[in-house]
Amino acid sequence: MSAPIKTLLSRSLLRQARPASIPRHRYLATIRVAQQAASRSFTVSYRRRDAASDTSEPHHSVKYTTDSYDIERNPAFAEISAEDVQHFKSILGDDAAVIDGVTQDATDDIEAYNKDWMNKYRGHTKLVVRPKSTEEVSQILKYCNERKLAVVPQGGNSGLVGGSVPVFDEIVLNLGRMNKIRSFDDVSGILVVDGGVILEVADNYLAEQGYIFPLDLGAKGSCQIGGNVATNAGGLRFLRYGSLHGNVLGIEAVLPDGTILDDLSKLKKNNTGYDIKQLFIGGEGTIGVITGVSVACPRRSNAVNVAFFGLESFEKVQQAFKEAKGQLGEILSAFELMDGTSQDFVKKVTGNKHPLEGEYPFYCLIETSGSNAEHDQEKLEAFLEHVMGEEIVADGTLAQDDTQIKALWAWREGITEALGHAGGTYKYDVSIPLNELYKLVEESERGESKALGVVGYGHMGDSNLHLNVPVKKYSKEIEKALEPYVYEWIQKRSGSISAEHGLGIAKNKFIGYSRSDTMIGLMKQIKNLYDPNGIMNPYKYLT
Amino acid sequence: MSAPIKTLLSRSLLRQARPASIPRHRYLATIRVAQQAASRSFTVSYRRRDAASDTSEPHHSVKYTTDSYDIERNPAFAEISAEDVQHFKSILGDDAAVIDGVTQDATDDIEAYNKDWMNKYRGHTKLVVRPKSTEEVSQILKYCNERKLAVVPQGGNSGLVGGSVPVFDEIVLNLGRMNKIRSFDDVSGILVVDGGVILEVADNYLAEQGYIFPLDLGAKGSCQIGGNVATNAGGLRFLRYGSLHGNVLGIEAVLPDGTILDDLSKLKKNNTGYDIKQLFIGGEGTIGVITGVSVACPRRSNAVNVAFFGLESFEKVQQAFKEAKGQLGEILSAFELMDGTSQDFVKKVTGNKHPLEGEYPFYCLIETSGSNAEHDQEKLEAFLEHVMGEEIVADGTLAQDDTQIKALWAWREGITEALGHAGGTYKYDVSIPLNELYKLVEESERGESKALGVVGYGHMGDSNLHLNVPVKKYSKEIEKALEPYVYEWIQKRSGSISAEHGLGIAKNKFIGYSRSDTMIGLMKQIKNLYDPNGIMNPYKYLT
User: What's the whole-number mean pLDDT along residues A334-355?
Assistant: First the structure.
């Protein structure tokens, strides 16, 4: 059981007799007691299920993307023939590397590659290829480009915008068999991996060496690093470790014509020409396939602390954030926001008792990571004393060990999965100035009454809000109430209509709300430069 | 006067009676006493002089680049006519915005723009334009592109590879008048500036708001942020704050055809399409001119400490670095390396007394920045105790106040300027695996006897070495002894032949030692895409 902060603080105050910034009697009088049941268990599954093994939803009940979207197959693309299948088999050697639904019925084997984990997007592919080397990827793409066969690169298939599943009969190029850790240097912290290495596998490996992957997200148990880079994933510790544009040192990628972009640098600094690899970070597999990644990994912190707060208003959340930045400084590694509705969904789905006794409109999870446990504890205590004494935070609890840390994180990371139990969820992943971050949720609530709720949560530290509207069933009526309203709202504030999820097929039509015509024109120029036949991940991104 | 570490440590040991990781008597017995003269003064100028005001070297004594390099003017470029000058005057309105050496004699006014601060490169330009707005830059470039007039964008002209001065008669487009801080958000820490804002001006402005610019370098008093971004400057605190590829959130740039790339995002996350601005970071003004930059700035640390060490071997330097990473963790903000020869040059030029009494083959400067002075002090003391007790460090001193911090930094930052007093310096800015970092200096020493010395220093934390070979006079003989030897040495170790200085005209011929033909081919494709007439900063970078 994680401990109520009050108890911890009084213990610490008694022990240290340190001067509190506010008179102690006032402090004790104003903070609320979080009486927690000793029997509480935190069992929510906080990792998303692997898409390929997710058979809970019968395939036939998932609507084809071609039925939900008004979209036509590009007639310039060839149709896959038996000869093509034969050719891929000859390249890949191993029978297991080709799932052939062209010359035989392979529906059951193929469907997991055809649909996303949210059961929102479903394609019509009949062929999955699973290369084991960069050279094989090169041969596949070269052939596809010459034959004008469309291709969808697929990593862990854990995306949220339908970017990694086919729409029509695009060949799925799955990276799952390219899963080797290539090298690690324990002085520099530079890790080189195949594109198909699962994020959690890499992070566990790094943990053994005293290092940490500079990216973490709910889907870490299934997402792949190549996919993370291709979608420029942000995640939970962006606040501390920053963007993949800074942390990725090198990329090996295969261009549509089979050219291998060999830029797998293990150097932190290398100013010799245009940094072309950056185009592939966030390129969503539309100009090439990432087969290798070199990344600078920071030292893993010895001491990690997680606190969980209840707060009475978004105003107070902002105050708490400002205080956290100031007082926790360099040890702050996450500041996550969850509204009351989001926690109601997790409670309902998991049946678990919430870490905090009372109900609050807002909750925050704060994580610190540092090299000296005693120092961090002192900083955290001073911070907690201040925010509770000043009534910025109404109630709070502090994890006492790793199990409790995971349990508290589960109330944040479990939101996506909990919402997944609704019939469907309209998802908006937006970036807006901090002071207006939650206003979007409140205003969307007013406009929408048919939904099961309007949920707001996200990465407060990055001004990144996840606005989710769970519904019994997707309907044009609800969609119309939300769109373009939400996008226009964001545009007025010069925000981003996709902060970290990318465009895929879900957001591509709305890029104009966040980018000028000039920028879109320049992007299309890049697409044409690398993929003149347009075979890579078509119907998405810029189309 | 900064204090000898031994004194500080014994004081701290007495005060705290903390358990040392090694027996105290051994500790006291093994560290060496740094007896420092009370009258010591640190007066070395640690900021580079502004290029435009540097008139110490008579212009005529500086060799033209066209005489030192075997290079021919591209006949496709037009020659500047009186009509062109008239046109620029009509665009820019203000007479002061055009320095016209075409229709009149303006040699004295123009020469500062024609040569670099090292007196190594000198061009033949007869026209300098100094626009005040992005719109003016757009009109200038559009005209130049149509007329096929070549252009050199110029910021603070503090580069080290001749990238910001003309070779032949390219028009100098100087950004110095675009020097406005456009906006700053004190919650998010996002700063938006004109490209011509001087780095130190921006950092001083941020200091008032409790923030820091995530880049610092010796030339901060004259270099401009647009130039820093165009050259992807690394500098002194890369170790802590990381790369501009991660910190720059948005760029406004003008393409050669006059198109304004309007990507001045103030968002930390924005996954809506290819991150095209990244091509301009490190593009060295060859595909456009950066007129605006948006950058994420971290909070300024309350507590800054600087220690300066003498060490007996490079082996010990590596040990000290590993210990610093482990024990100082998140507060380590710089770990700089200087060899004995580098310090001899600074001593000689400044006449100052060195912070350490004895002479050592290696010196290190360690900086910590944190939010809690007491905690940082404790971490630093434990670290110092350890590295001195274990005889990793032979002697050391710790700055006691801001003046001493600056003074210690001057022994690191002053190296470039001190070497500038030689007749010339062969400069190599390389990235190689840490364990071999200094081997390059030792091996270059063996091969070269005609030089005034072989100097090694740099950013240990980033595996970034500055190998400098000061000479009385540049000579083919010395050059041949060094090149291609140095480049081949780096290539064998998959290093970078230009870690942070860029290519310019000094390194462009050697790009093949660090990049494959495929990568160079892809880079040329990008150049041709944006600048088909090749008017931007010609004769450099990829040519």
Answer: 97
* Size of chain B in residues: 543
Nearest C-alpha of chain B: how many angstroms from A54?
27
Task: Clarify whether residues A459 and A357 are in a common domain.
Answer: no
- Read off the CATH number of the domain in which A24 is found: 3.30.70.2190
Helices (DSSP H) in B80-179: which residue ranges? 82-92, 107-114, 134-147
| pLDDT value of residue B191 | 98
* Those residues with Cβ within 8 angstroms of residue B172's Cβ, 6 or more apart along the chain or in another chain: B113, B114, B125, B127, B128, B129, B151, B152, B154, B165, B166
Cβ of residue B317 closer than 8 Å to a chain A Cβ = no
Task: Establish if A524 belongs to a structural domain.
Answer: no
The interface predicted TM-score (ipTM) is 0.91
Q: Quick one: pLDDT band at residue A317, thresholds 50, 70, 90?
A: very high
Q: Is residue A71 part of a domain?
A: yes
For residue A474, being part of any structural domain is answered with yes
* A274 closest CB neighbour out of B370, B516, B526: B526
Could you tell me if A35 lies within 8 Å of chain B, comparing CB atoms?
Answer: no
| Across A18-40, average pLDDT | 28
The pLDDT mean for chain B works out to 89
Any A CB within 8 A of B499 CB: yes
Report the first-to-last Cα separation within chain B, whole angstroms.
50
Nearest to A272 among B234, B243, B515 (CB): B515
Chain A interface includes B542 (CB < 8 A): yes
Asked if the model's pLDDT at residue B332 lies above 80, the reply is yes
Which of these, B259, B284, B66, lies nearest to B166 by C-alpha position? B66
Contact B273 A246 (CB under 8 A): no
Is the CB of A326 less than 8 angstroms away from the CB of B271?
Answer: no
The predicted structure's pLDDT at residue A474? 84
Which of A262, A301, A435 faces B516 most closely, judged by CB atoms? A262
Q: Which tokens belong to A476?
A: 């044009």
A213, A312: one domain: no
Q: Examine the domain organization and report whether B319 and B290 are in the same domain.
A: no
Same domain, A385 and A364: yes
Nearest CA in chain B to A459: B269
Contact A330/B at CB under 8 A? yes
A519 touches chain B (CB under 8 A): yes
Q: Are residues B283 and B231 in the same domain?
A: yes
Edge-to-edge strands, sheet with B3-4: B3-4, B395-398, B303-311, B362-370, B332-339, B455-459, B464-471, B424-431
Whether residue A539 lies inside any domain: the answer is no
For A211, nearest residue in chain B (alpha carbons): B326
Question: In the prediction, which pLDDT does B40 show?
Answer: 29
To the nearest whole Å, the CA of A378 is away from the closest chain B CA by 9
Rounded alpha-carbon distances, angstroms, from residue B485 to B272, B436, B450, B457, B520: 45, 16, 16, 19, 22
> How many separate domains does chain A show?
4
CATH number of the domain where residue B249 is located: 3.30.465.10
Look at residues A256, A275, A296 and tell me which one is the last residue of a structural domain.
A296
Residues A505-515 have pLDDT tens digits of 999 999 999 99
Query: What domain range is B397 assigned to?
Result: 3-43+302-418
**E-state strands within B199-324:** 248-254, 260-263, 289-296, 303-311
What part of B 194-253 touches A (C-beta under 8 Å)? 231-232, 234, 238, 242-243, 245-247
Instruction: Give the chain B residue whose CA is nearest to the CA of A303.
Output: B329
Q: Is the pLDDT of residue B537 over 80?
A: yes
A367 shares its domain with A472: no
Of A260, A265, A499, the CB nearest to B271: A499
- The tokens describing A464, both together, are 């990144």
**Out of A247, A287, A542, whose CB is closest to B246?**
A247
Q: Are residues A404 and A312 in the same domain?
A: yes
Measuring CA to CA, how many Å separate B471 from each of B63, B420, B455, B480?
A: 16, 10, 11, 14
Judged by CB atoms within 8 Å, which residues 180-199 of B form the interface with A?
Answer: 185, 187-188
Same domain? For B32 and B57 the reply is no
